Amino acid sequence: MGADRPIRVLMIGKGWFPDQTGGLDRYFRDLLEQLPESRGVVVGARRAPAFKGARVRGVSEHDRPLAFRLWALARVIRKEAKVADVIDVHFALYAVVPLLCGAFRGKTLVVHFQGPWAEENVEKGDRSILRRRLRERVERLVYRRATLAITLTGAFRRVLVERYGVPPWRVKVLPPGVDLVRFSPEDRTVARQRWAFGPDMFVACCVRRLVPRMGLDLLLEAWQQLLTTRGREAGAPRLQLMIAGDGEMRSWLAEQLAAAGLATCVTLLGRVSDEALAELYRAADVNVVPSLSSEGFGLVVLEAAACGTPSIATRVGGLPEALGGLDPTLLVAAHDSNALARRLAAAESGDLPTRARTRLWAEQHPWHVVAERHREVYADALARTSGSRRKIRVAYVGHVAQLSGGEIALARLIDALDEVDAHVILAEDGPLVDRLLASGISVEVLPMRSRTRNLRKNRVGRRGVPITAVLDTLWYAARLSRRINTVEADLVHTNTLKAGVYGSLAARLARVPVVWHVRDRIAPDYLSRWAVILVRALLATLPDGVIANSQATRATLRSAPERTSVVYSIVHDPITSPPVRVDQRQPGRFVVGMVGRIAQWKGQDVFLRAFAQAFGSGTEAAVLVGAPMFGDAEQVYSEELRTLTQELGIADRVTFVGFRDDIWAELAPMDVFVHASVTPEPFGQVIVEAMLAGVPVIASAGGGPTEIVTHDVDGLLYPPGDVDALAASMRRLRTDAPLRAQLAANARTRAERFSPAVAATAVMALYDSALAARRT
Fold first, then answer.
1. Is 91 exposed, middle or buried (0-12, 13-18, 19+ CB in 10 A)?
2. Same domain, yes or no, for 341 and 477?
């Protein structure tokens, strides 16, 4: 478009708020209000919807037969579409007729996806297989024809990619906005007085359509448990639950309340005006969103937060993304009334974000910012239609979804690659999926059979790989190759050893360049001799480029050096990457810590023995952060470590923290950090994290750590597995505070070589090289 006029957008909606009260209809109207350059056509609305200006046209009543609604839409859409640059459809059904009759021919089509329409109708009780399949065909046709699709969360982007086959590069995630004037804190005391809530009452509200998927029966079960618990406590404040909304379950809910004797402490309000709704949010202590399925974001979470009221929600759909930025503890497991009751009890005891903090969080979602992001998406869609230059599309293939070192490193790498459209394909579901979604990274799960996914490296020996694992891997590689072609990837980047094998095979089948990221030393002290031979052979023949995470790793590969680059893992600086909690050391308390997966080769037993030898019966404390992640052997080892502390007489001074996502909070109280691997470490990114956090480091002198730490300059090194040497290093740093300060200061300077910019430049150069080599 020229700079002299804005992009002309025609928005097509399903219903008109407040005639239709669903979140989709409110979202459509609010967005239309913020885009004065756009026009609207509403299929389920009166002929002339009440609106500012004359740019909205209603073509049918919502309750007219479907054929009449589609005919009415077809009558007006050709004329309206002619003057539009972009068509933005908010309900897939109403895009089908214009698509089939050619009204959208030559137009840039954007579609909003706020939930699987076919599935939602099944949940409402429509058991017709024919109607479900027809609806699914309609959805698939519209979403695949769209230039771009917009979802409110990464969880729903994942639905579009996995279920409907939409390439991830054509899906944009745009969280919704909230009217910060209509929904505002104002005077909470006045609001509670208007609702006749006493000053000591604990009030929860729930604003939902009264349909089964909203989880209202779950909420009633949890509320009854809360009443039972609190009723036994003397002087417990009165509890009140207010449910606002209407729907097919209202009569059933009223009967349930009467039968359970809850009518005095649970009120069904029916539909309420926006003014009354804002007053309800202000008066309540907490809002509850107990959804069971198909929750794209949860607009009520933002509305309540804008009034200062936090929400407790189930871990469903987009709700984890919606609430994660405020407080992850507000999320509970879906279908679990006990978990919901416990979280409500904690809220009643005061365990909630402050109202001021909640309002500040809501202020990050103003509608004018959301509208501007839509304008950017419309411009992007137009550019794609005209064939303008685009980013490199990279499919990242990973094996596991645990938050171990390699997986965290992958998420950080993708964050740093501004010139890449990234999509991650994992062989299992797990915490990494949530981590990627929270970072705005597209992800899908293509499940692999657990018998092969969980195959340990010690099963690969003289007799080769189990035949079932070979067959499963080949079958999975074939499926993965189809996904690579379906998502239209330009390049594949594999992230783990197993993913490197089947991901490289899949990329070759798909005829797409592949980069194999090696994060393990391919050596007999880590793999069996036959596995080393196999992996080295594959590395020499399959990938177009190889990334080694250290010089130590590269030395074990034996692959073509001209195709291999050393790229150290990215570690973010806690000082420049909030939230920051550095230096929480307590005077008079000396803490030695270790962070890492609980595994025998990581050397936690060496750490404990050295600690006991260094400090005997002193006052020093030891902290072990980490958990077993892979296999029963690691779980057994974890239990053996606890027994070892008893045998060494240090159990009262050793704390096992378990897995923690916030590494900086765990490093902050430490006076010394220890890395104790008995097998040479491929890299050791936790060492860099400790250096950046200002904690003096003692590291095992094998593999990658020798490239990170220079002995007596920015840390101390000792021979791997040498308990005496490690104990001596601990004692040395305990008694020499100036040395600790010097090592910590030098370490921060040393750690700058692991910055995102350095890694991103090296990776992009390798991508360009792999793409160029395949083109020639």
1. buried
2. no
pLDDT at residue 3 in the model = 53
Q: pLDDT band for position 585 (50/70/90)?
A: low
Query: What is each CA distance from 776 to 156, 491, 771, in whole angstroms?
Result: 38, 15, 9
**41 touches 73 (CB < 8 A):** yes
pTM of the model: 0.81
What is the full DSSP assignment across 140-198? HHHHHH-SEEEESSHHHHHHHHHHH---GGGEEE----B-TTTS----HHHHHHHTT--
Structural domains counted in the chain: 4
Alpha-carbon gap, residue 226 to 223, rounded angstroms: 5
**Domain check: are 400 and 343 in the same one?**
no
Please check whether residues 86 and 112 belong to one and the same domain: yes
Alpha-carbon distance of 680 to 700, in angstroms, equals 8
Residue 326 confidence (pLDDT) above 60: yes
Angle between the N-to-C axes of helices 23-34 and 299-306, in degrees from 0 to 180, rounded to the nearest 10: 60
- HSE-CB of 425 using CA atoms within 13 angstroms: 33
CA–CA dist 332, 341 (Å, integer)? 10
546 and 446 belong to one structural domain: yes
The pLDDT score that the predictor gives to residue 582 is 44
Q: Which domain holds residue 611?
A: 591-754
Considering the domain architecture, whether residues 160 and 129 belong to the same structural domain is answered as: yes
Copy the structure tokens of residue 606: 């060496």
440 with 551, same domain? yes
| CATH number of the structural domain spanning residue 690 | 3.40.50.2000
Q: Which amino acid is at 60?
A: S
Half-sphere exposure of residue 615, counting CA atoms within 13 Å on the CB side? 25
pLDDT in tens, 409-422: 899 899 989 999 99
381 falls within a domain? no
Q: Are residues 164 and 193 in the same domain?
A: no
